[in-house]
Design goal:
The complex is a heterodimer of chains A (170) and B (211). By secondary structure, chain A is mainly alpha-helical. Chain A has six helices and no strands. In chain A, helix 1 runs antiparallel to helix 3, helix 3 crosses helix 4 and helix 4 runs antiparallel to helix 5. The longest helix of chain A is centred in the middle third of the chain and has 25 residues. The mean pLDDT of chain A is 86. Chain B starts with a helix and ends with a helix. Chain B folds into two domains: 30 residues; 171 residues, Glutaredoxin. Chain B has a five-stranded mixed β-sheet. The chains are: A mainly alpha (170), B alpha+beta (211). At the A-B interface, helix 1, helix 2, helix 3 and helix 6 of A face helix 1, strand 5 and helix 9 of B.
Chain lengths: 170, 211
């Protein structure tokens, strides 16, 4: 498996260091959010999802979502931090963040009074409005991570180097 | 296998192990304790196949909202259920919850825990929004057939507070983050909707399996 090859005819709009920092920032947030929710009993997170009153989620489906979603966040977070399948992880983070933004916006629009977005389980308690500021910002960082996150200090780079080294020289 | 693929596989395994280890380190490995409380805070036979423990706060509106469902469950399943009440006053958001819990413990000592408990939930707004919630609690103690002076003196005893603190510590160990939290034979249900929608089928399943 090799990381995507850069098209050298295009200028690098995003410097590698910015991609790495973005990757680390988004990854750290995802690891914290996922770990705090996965460590706590899933019924606690299920209650938070219930408060969102999402019409497409039945009460019986919520416990499964509450059990698995934090682990997806954790996987995406660790992949970003380590630079492992960086671009795929960045896309995953972006999609999750878009879903979170939609959920937060729908709560805001419907005027559901939630004291906290529940994004970080019991660790921190950002409000819905704070979540609506944080998530688009993280979405932007995910884009930077997608563009340039894999180039330095990443497992992708380390693995690619091994692949290139093992190729027979002519 | 090419070295690049080997590195990728090894990295994936290490990352997964680290992620799981971190979650378990944060979670801790607390032993599961049997549901225990002073006898006056328990209802139902000791050998009942279903044990429901509720971590509750007398000032919490969600606990009051769950109360009819709890009462329905207890009347529906009768002697097949043992109910254990655990004190979990959320002092930060409910300033009178601890006082209510202290008074309820004292009512329990006099054998009046359940009448006092029911009065506090049935008339929650009356004492929470009273001019002096502390005095209002004592007036409900009188209604429950208690001597308010005795309750007042008892609530100041350190042993009473210690009993409540033990429940709070247990709740914290078990990651109780909201009230009411119910444990039905160890399985957690948070809030009235989970109790009614998921807890009741869970009780039926336990009873079916134990038949």
């Amino acid at each position: 498996m090799t990381p995507p090859v850069r098209n050298k005819s295009l200028p690098d709009a995003v410097p590698a260091w910015m991609g790495v920092l973005s990757r680390l920032a988004v990854g750290a947030v995802f690891i914290t959010a996922g770990t705090m929710k996965a460590a706590a009993p899933s019924a606690e997170f299920a209650l938070i999802i219930q408060y969102y009153h999402l019409p497409f989620l039945s009460l019986s489906a919520i416990p499964s979502v509450a059990a698995f979603l934090p682990w997806i966040e954790i996987a995406v977070g660790w992949c970003l931090v380590a630079g492992y399948f960086t671009r795929q992880a960045a896309v995953g983070a972006g999609l999750l963040l878009l879903a979170f933004i939609c959920a937060l916006a729908s709560v805001k629009l419907r005027g559901i009074p939630l004291p906290s977005c529940g994004c970080f389980g019991g660790a921190f308690h950002p409000t819905i409005a704070e979540g609506l500021v944080l998530d688009p910002f993280l979405c932007g960082l995910s884009f930077l991570a997608y563009r340039a996150g894999w180039r330095s200090f990443s497992l992708d780079q380390w693995c690619a180097r091994a692949s290139q080294g093992s190729q027979p020289r002519i | 296998m090419p070295q690049g693929v080997r590195r990728r596989l090894a990295s994936g395994v290490v990352l997964a192990a680290v992620a799981v280890a971190v979650v378990y380190a944060v979670r801790g490995f607390g032993p599961q304790s049997p549901e225990k409380a002073p006898a006056f805070r328990e209802k139902g036979p000791a050998n009942a196949p279903v044990v429901i423990a509720e971590f509750s706060d007398f000032e919490c509106p969600a606990c009051r909202a769950a109360e009819p469902t709890v009462r329905q469950i207890l009347s529906l399943y009768g002697s097949r259920v043992r109910f254990v009440f655990k004190q979990f006053p959320l002092e930060k958001i409910h300033p009178w919850a601890l006082q209510a819990a202290l008074d309820a413990e004292c009512a329990g000592r006099e054998g009046k825990f359940w009448p006092f408990h029911d009065l506090l939930y049935d008339h929650q707004d009356d004492w929470v929004y009273a001019k002096s919630p502390k005095d209002a609690l004592l007036s409900f103690a009188r209604k429950a057939g208690l001597d308010p002076a005795k309750v007042k003196a008892c609530a100041e005893e350190p042993g009473i507070l210690a009993s409540i603190n033990a429940d709070i510590a247990e709740g914290n160990r078990r990651w109780v983050g909201a009230t009411p939290t119910f444990f039905i034979n160890g399985k957690r249900f948070v809030g009235m909707e989970q109790l009614a929608g998921l807890g009741v089928p869970w009780i039926d399943r336990i009873l079916k399996e134990k038949k």
